[in-house]
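Quick one: co-fold with thymidine-5'-diphosphate.
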Amino acid sequence: MSKTVLVTGGTGFIGNCFCKLLLTERPDWNVINVDVCTYAANIHTIDEELKNERYKFYKVDIRDREAIFDIFEKECPNIVVNFAAESHVDRSIFDPESFLNTNIIGTSVLMDACRKFGIERFHQVSTDEVYGDLPLDRPDLFFTEETPLHTSSPYSTSKASADLLVLSYFRTYNLPVTISRCSNNYGPYQFPEKLIPLMISKALKDEPLPVYGEGLNVRDWLYVEDHCRGILAILEKGRVGEIYNLGGHNERNNLYIVKRILKELNKPESLITHVADRHGHDQRYAIDPHKANVELNWDPTTTFEEGIVKTINWYLSSYGQNWLEECLKTTEEWMKKNYNNRK
Ligand code: NAD
Ligand code: TYD
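Sure, here it is.
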């Protein structure tokens, strides 16, 4: 049956992958992308989608109540999937307020529009970072949906706050919500300020690769398309009011990731430069995806080896092209601010 899905943050890394998935795998669904296009969005990301007659783009801020309500009135979405967010932990350490504004207030505006105009589902894209971190010496521990919220950074705190707000709209207003909490994503079109695309870009330019602290922090890496398939499964098979953890049992420490990238690009490990650690740096994230696996029959299908090679090849082919060069130019000032004082 035909559906109209309103995707916020659809010009960003994961939101765009989700739009692509809907347009190819749900041929009678329409996709509305609402994105204000912050520094983290490059308009060329949606070049292909803009040619599709089932896709529409509104350059609108999710905090703009009037504009959001107008879009709901005009487009009558059946489903809303909220990806729009300030998403970089390091930036949240410099500027918490913009994270609180977009990630919490923006989410409430969207849900108010859902209440007013009616909706089959509001899905909130959240993160495993809401659970805080796990110790490196307890590999037997994993985050489940029951793990208490225990955030470390302004970013994760803003996401956890939004999650609580979403659950409160379920309980108080009976809004049909679901939440997914996902581990670290990687893949094409990721803005080159996050670990994997930053390290690939630096290696391609033979510049030092800035590893925070000893580089032993662990993340559970998931290929972006697997994440998006998990969200689609939640929309189609998930129970309202529920939270689903999405992760790949694919833990690697940062040094492993950086060395793997250097090996693939045939660059020397001498490019690795240890810099001062991130304040409040989370040690380890590791998701137990059992619930999504049993209830939704969801499992990641891309191995880390396949995914990292695909990702590196995508950045290799983007090297010197508009998308990557423009993104790197955008990050120049940020690089000075975040990295210059690090030793
Ligand atoms: P991203 O930074 O690449 O994209 C975010 C998008 O949101 C951008 O296009 C930006 O322009 C848009 N946006 C920001 N503020 C907005 C506003 N006020 N109004 C409208 N649009 C706005 O982020 P991403 O990596 O694609 O992450 C998407 C979502 O997934 C986020 O909610 C993030 O918290 C969550 N998440 C990300 C990861 C990850 O590893 N990247 C892991 C788990 C969860
Ligand atoms: P990041 O991609 O920012 O994701 P998150 O902090 O949300 O997990 O960082 C992933 C890991 O890589 C994290 O442990 C911090 C580390 N890191 C570096 O060592 N150097 C860098 O330049 C960046 C951006 C991250």
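If it helps, Residues 104 and 162 are 5 Å apart (CA to CA).
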